[in-house]
Amino acid sequence: MKPESYTSSGGVRRHVTGSFLLMAFWCLLISGTAQAEFIKTGLFTYQETNEHTKVIVVPDIEGVSGIFIITGEAHPLQLFDIESLPAKGSYSVFLQFSPTKKRFTDMHVGAETYSIQGSLTLKLGDKPFPRISLDQSSGNPYLSIVEQNGKDDFSLLAFLGTLEVLNRSGENAILFEANALKNDAIRDYRVTSDQKLMLGDVNVNIDKVGIVSTFSNKCSELGSILIRKHTREELSKLDREALKKVALEWKKKGLSSENYIPLRSEGSDFIFFDYLNEEIVKISYIRKLNIDGKSSSICLEEPLTGAKK
Question: If residue 2 lies in a helix (H) or strand (E), which one and from where to where?
Answer without folding.
Answer: none
